[in-house]
Amino acid sequence: MNKTPNFREIRYNEKRDKILKNAARLFAKSGYENVSMEKIAAKLKLNKATLYYYFKSKDEIFFMIQMQAIEQANDALGKVLDSNLGPKEKLLEAIKSHVRIVTRDYITGTFRQRELILPRKLMIKVIAARNRFEENFKKIVLEGVEQGIFQEDNWKLAVMSILGALNAIPRWYSPRGKLSPENIGETISAFVIKGISID
Amino acid sequence: MNKTPNFREIRYNEKRDKILKNAARLFAKSGYENVSMEKIAAKLKLNKATLYYYFKSKDEIFFMIQMQAIEQANDALGKVLDSNLGPKEKLLEAIKSHVRIVTRDYITGTFRQRELILPRKLMIKVIAARNRFEENFKKIVLEGVEQGIFQEDNWKLAVMSILGALNAIPRWYSPRGKLSPENIGETISAFVIKGISID
After folding, report:
1. Which 52-91 residues of chain A touch chain B by CB within 8 A?
2. Which residues in B154-163 are b (16+ Cβ under 10 Å) and which e?
3. pLDDT tens, position by position, for chain B (199 residues)?
4. Selected residue of A120, A161, A174 to mutate for chain B interface (largest B Cβ count, 10 A)
5. Using CA atoms, how far apart are residues B66 and B88, in angstroms rounded to an integer?
6. Is B194 on the interface with A (CB under 8 A)?
7. Domains in chain B and their CATH numbers?
8. Is A199 on the interface with B (CB under 8 A)?
9. 3-state secondary structure chain B
10. Quick check: B170 and A169 in contact, CB under 8 A?
């Protein structure tokens, strides 16, 4: 059996991805409530039936965008966690890669919204994926705590504060601002690492 | 002309306030979309007509809750800003008072939701009030920058990160957790002040 995706599958996946990105931009621009399946189809010059062939509802589209973004963040974080870097460097890389993801235009728009608008069944999956991210982020800081590099007291509160700061970026970030995602990641890391380090 | 509110006005205001708090708790528990004016009236043992006498829509209730919370935060911040404290102490007090507000049960619920669900006209007012808060918070940090106590480079990004961390608290805070709002405020302040101070 051949597990390599065939041409048809690749096209199908590319199409789905294109729909997700364009829908995300529409949600960002007009607000989730104000975007219908019709509008998504129109933006992509698809007829509605074709759109429904790929996604059975607007909720499913929004859910997939959120999941894709969180999975990207989880993958990036997993690589950092498995690397041979020291705790400070790991935290720097983790923050930088997360900033890179949350500042992508189509992701920014989605993260301005909340998973709370999803039906409960889907919302729970988003929250679970987000919790995995949070757990991995905690592991990075905990390594530093165990090595006596980061402060032990209330280190979990430090992690929640860092994640709060990072996840707020889509609310104020502008690609026309003077700071690049790289600058933002490095600057926040510098504040954070100084703030939680022992010394 | 007597500007002191009379008994009738006081009762009216108390009643409005009671409606807001109870509605906020319902929104927090069941999600904004799933709470109707009927449910709010039922919780308060009011008939629907009485509820409509106080608020003309669910949007107006949600809007008032958000505005009340932001105005409380603005008042508290204004007092800190006008005080004679030094920049580090001002920042500590500003953070502590904000944590105290965002951890109040009925406010926590509201801040888990977003102003994005409001009609545009109301949303703009919420954002304007929030911007005033942000501007005042920036003034506190800027005082420290000007006095050579806080780092000048990217101080605005530091402020946005602090606010991101603080505004994320309603997403994870539990009154049954081991940290009190006071502990949370002091701990976050300690991380932040260490992170942004020169030395």
Report:
1. none
2. bbebbbbbbb
3. 556 778 888 888 899 999 999 998 888 788 777 899 999 999 999 999 999 999 999 999 989 988 888 899 999 999 999 999 999 999 999 999 999 998 987 776 666 566 666 788 888 898 899 999 999 999 999 999 999 999 999 999 999 999 999 988 988 898 899 999 999 999 999 999 999 999 8
4. A161
5. 28
6. yes
7. 57-196 (1.10.357.10)
8. no
9. CCCCCCHHHHHHHHHHHHHHHHHHHHHHHHCHHHCCHHHHHHHCCCCHHHHHHHCCCHHHHHHHHHHHHHHHHHHHHHHHHHCCCCHHHHHHHHHHHHHHHHCCHHHHHHHHCCHHHCCHHHHHHHHHHHHHHHHHHHHHHHHHHHCCCECCCCHHHHHHHHHHHHHCHHHHCCCCCCCCHHHHHHHHHHHHHHHHECC
10. no
Tokens of B176: 């049954």
Q: Provide the token pair at A48.
A: 């509605």
CB atoms A187 and B154 under 8 Å: yes
CB-based contact, B165 to chain A, within 8 Å: yes
